[in-house]
Design goal:
The protein contains 6 helices and 2 strands, in the order ββαααααα. The protein is mostly helical. It has a single domain, classed as Nucleotidyltransferase, domain 5. A two-stranded antiparallel sheet has the order 1-2.
């Protein structure tokens, strides 16, 4: 029941948070002891909001990732590339491009974001942006905020997430792929 004198009583209000209409899509890669490139793209509007395989290959893999991969491969032979389950990651064009560059794919079960250490990095990145000195009010400010938070992220924190993977995989195996 609603009483007129309760309309602005703080005990009767439920706070809501409006999501910003300014969005970006972020891609980055990590390796034990190193942050790879960070790619900040304007968020594509429309169905799904993602990028297609051609955009992924041109804007991310070819533009940023390949040089990093070659540098890391020469230092750390035997590394594999782990992607999430986005359609552009699994597209035939993407897989062919990775195969052409002899980039081995680390298997990643579908619907298993906890098995990818970068998910923890995304949470940390979002938290850092929320605590930025002021809420970004333009696409440029948001891109700057993302880059600043990424640059400030301590590699020891990222390594911690990577180090947890052995325990997480063990728990998933013990649960026969079920909840842990």
């Amino acid at each position: 029941m609603h009483c007129k004198d309760e309309e602005y009583d703080k005990n009767c209000l439920v706070p809501t948070f409006k999501q910003s209409s300014i969005r970006v899509m972020v891609w980055a890669c990590i390796l034990k002891g190193k942050k790879g490139p960070l790619v900040v793209l304007k968020y594509p509007e429309g169905k799904g909001g993602g990028i297609n395989a051609q955009q992924y290959q041109e804007l991310v893999l070819e533009a940023e990732f390949l040089d990093f991969w070659e540098d890391m491969k020469s230092v750390n032979y035997g590394i594999a590339f782990q992607q999430g389950g986005a359609p552009s990651h699994k597209a035939k064009m993407t897989l062919k491009g990775l195969n052409d560059h002899k980039i081995g794919i680390f298997p990643h079960p579908p619907s298993s974001p906890d098995l990818n250490p970068i998910e923890c990095v995304w949470r940390k990145l979002k938290k850092g942006i929320r605590t930025w000195s002021h809420h970004p009010s333009s696409l440029h400010e948001l891109k700057v905020a993302v880059q600043e938070v990424w640059d400030a992220m301590d590699i020891a924190d990222i390594d911690k997430y990577i180090d947890w993977m052995d325990d997480i995989v063990k728990a998933v195996l013990e649960a026969n792929g079920g909840h842990t």
